[in-house]
Specification:
The chain has nine helices and four strands, in the order H-E-E-H-H-H-E-H-H-E-H-H-H. It folds into three domains: 55 residues, no CATH class; 77 residues, Helicase, Ruva Protein, domain 3; 66 residues, Arc Repressor Mutant, subunit A (Orthogonal Bundle), CATH 1.10.10.60. 48% of the residues lie in helices and 5% in strands. Helix 1 packs across helix 3, helix 4 crosses helix 6 and helix 7 packs across helix 8. Strand 1 and strand 2 form a beta hairpin. It is mainly alpha-helical. It starts with a helix and ends in a 14-residue tail after the last helix. The strands form two sheets. A two-stranded antiparallel sheet has the order 1-2. A two-stranded parallel ribbon has the order 3-4. About 5% of the residues have low confidence.
Length: 212
């Protein structure tokens, strides 16, 4: 509360004294204040000065939580991938569709900071320039809307979800060519065919003319 009194004085008069000095200096700085607290509640509790609140609240901008502006997420993802790939000297070409689905379906209680931390982690863990769902934090390891494999937490279900995602990504990158995809995955074409049958996948789905 003592600091609030001093801040109010600076905002009202522009005058302040440096520590250890009695000379009053004038300040013309503009102040941008941000909070994630309910200031009206703090005022009612006597923990925030009402006069300071009205002095600060000249032009108010309310930013909705990230879960209420999902259209911002893809742009933020691209920005953070570019940022942390450059910082870590990595090349990240893309983020897989299942990973995007997982990000879009999450409720983001930590808003943009949580998303940034999530993408930083994924960039560092990424392999061969691709971010997969299993590079995301455990809090996001939930079924994605486009996934046909439910992942409710057991080890076999999680392994199936990861395997299915890797197969989809390989087939996408190979334009549906099972031989190329199998080589990328390090398995035989026959084994790939069996795995695709298990997950009800068809190579035709991944031809660029047909799409997925």
């Amino acid at each position: 509360m003592q600091a609030q009194v001093k801040l109010l004085r600076v905002l009202q008069s522009g005058g302040f004294e440096r520590v250890g000095s009695s000379k009053t200096l004038q300040n013309r700085a503009r102040v941008i204040a941000a909070t994630n607290k309910d200031l009206s509640k703090l005022i009612a509790e006597g923990r925030f000065r009402e006069d300071l609140y009205y002095r600060l609240n000249v032009v108010s901008i309310t930013v909705p939580p990230l879960r209420e502006r999902k259209t911002d997420i893809p742009v933020l993802i691209d920005h953070f991938i570019e940022k942390y790939a450059a910082l870590n000297g990595l090349q990240v070409q893309r983020i897989s569709t299942p990973a995007i689905d997982m990000i879009m379906s999450y409720h983001w209680p930590g808003n943009v900071r949580e998303l940034e931390n999530c993408i930083e982690r994924a960039v560092i863990l990424s392999e061969e320039g691709v971010i997969h769902g299993y590079h995301l934090p455990p809090t996001l390891q939930v079924p994605s809307p486009s996934s046909g494999t439910a992942c409710v937490g057991s080890l076999p279900q999680r392994l199936d979800a990861v395997e299915r995602e890797m197969i989809i990504d390989a087939l996408k990158g190979a334009d549906g060519n099972m031989g190329v995809a199998a080589k990328q995955l390090g398995i035989s074409e026959r084994v790939l065919g069996l795995r695709m049958r298990k997950y009800a996948l068809s190579f035709q789905q991944f031809r660029r003319s047909g799409g997925l």
